[in-house]
UniProtKB/TrEMBL annotation:
Residues 24-97, 108-274 form the Tryptophan synthase beta chain-like PALP domain. Its cofactor is pyridoxal 5'-phosphate. Belongs to the cysteine synthase/cystathionine beta-synthase family. It comes from the Eukaryota. SUPFAM superfamilies: Tryptophan synthase beta subunit-like PLP-dependent enzymes. GO terms for molecular function: transferase activity. It holds the Pfam family PALP. Keywords: Amino-acid biosynthesis, Cysteine biosynthesis, Pyridoxal phosphate, Transferase. Pathway: Amino-acid biosynthesis. One of its GO terms (biological process) is cysteine biosynthetic process. InterPro entries: Cys_Synth/Cystath_Beta-Synth, TrpB-like_PALP, TrpB-like_PALP_sf. This is Tryptophan synthase beta chain-like PALP domain-containing protein.
Length: 298
């Protein structure tokens, strides 16, 4: 595990040592990797596609490590203290769960709460270097170790940009030839130089360029439509048995494009499945499934 709690998956379960986390933060990190052999096989792509399943986290998403690192960092700097500070955070993804306002609404709400509540601190994932630092310290090394250094290409959607910037930086430090591919919504291709727009890939494509997004480590940006993201998320559930969120589908769509390239034959592509599918039961992702379930109930 992240801080010395041996992973239950990695350890053979010898029964010789206790495997008990001393608090919930000890369970953060070391999410499992899975190769998508069924989908890659059906598509006939030459590259291996490997997903990192972030639903295996205490709060079920890729944001657990960032939250922990930003809080640790603010505590180390004496900016916040338990029982005194109220943390307020603008988020459209999994750092918090408030999808209804959208972005300027979220920023206005943060300003309002700053006035209303005493001792408010905003960690600000979009400008806080502790956010990508979580992925330099933990997510990147996890991928490097679990692939035995064989990762050739890393593909990740960008919300705050923490994952792609942090993992990208770490992997390039290990092997400068690793390619880093960023994924964003085709309807809001801001990193690709286009205009912000409405889309339904929750957690990526905030419509602006975050301060912490490190474009120097990104070799290529791939755009994916909301429709393709949803289709591919359903594919992961139906064909691989992985109930994951919409941005996971976007990452898979991008991986399939990259994996089909002749030059990537035999290469290992690692991507993130940032959240679990339960969180999107009320979204368009499961609209058809939901209607069928309701029809079956009566
Ligand atoms: N997918 C989902 C579902 C998310 O919640 C987030 C975080 N906003 C991301 C992808 C992107 O992660 P990051 O903020 O590290 O770019």
């Amino acid at each position: 595990g992240r801080r010395g709690v041996p992973s239950l998956l990695a350890d053979g379960g010898t029964g010789q040592e206790e495997h008990i986390a001393s608090d919930v933060t000890q369970l953060i990190g070391w999410t499992p990797l899975i190769e998508l052999k069924r989908i890659a096989g059906k598509e006939g792509v030459g590259a291996r596609i490997v997903g990192k399943i972030e639903a295996y986290q205490p709060l079920c998403s890729v944001k657990d490590r960032s939250a922990l690192r930003m809080i640790e960092d603010a505590e180390e700097k004496g900016l916040i203290s338990p029982g005194v500070t109220t943390l307020v955070e603008p988020t459209s993804g999994n750092l918090g769960l408030d999808p209804t306002l959208g972005f300027p609404g979220i920023t206005d709400k943060v300003e309002q709460l700053k006035k209303e509540l005493p001792n408010v601190h905003v960690l600000d994932q979009f400008s806080n270097p502790a956010n990508p630092d979580a992925h330099i310290r933990w997510t990147g090394p996890e991928i490097w170790k679990d692939t035995a250094g064989k990762v050739d290409i890393f593909v990740a959607g960008s919300g705050s940009g923490g994952t792609v910037s942090g993992v990208g930086k770490y992997l390039k430090m290990q092997n400068p030839n690793v390619k880093i591919i960023c994924v964003e919504p085709a309807e809001s291709p801001v990193i690709s130089g286009g205009e912000p727009g409405k889309h339904k890939i929750q957690g990526i494509g905030p419509g602006f360029l975050p301060e912490i997004l490190d474009t120097s480590v990104i070799d290529e940006t791939v755009t994916v439509t909301t429709e393709d993201a949803m289709t591919n998320a359903r594919r992961l559930a139906m064909e691989e048995g992985l109930l994951v969120g919409i941005s996971s589908g976007a990452n898979l769509a991008a991986c399939l494009k990259v994996a089909a390239r002749e030059e990537n034959k035999g290469k290992m592509i690692v991507t993130m499945f940032p959240s679990g599918g339960e969180r999107y039961m009320n979204s368009d992702l499961f609209a058809t499934v939901r209607e069928e379930c309701i029809a079956m109930t009566f």
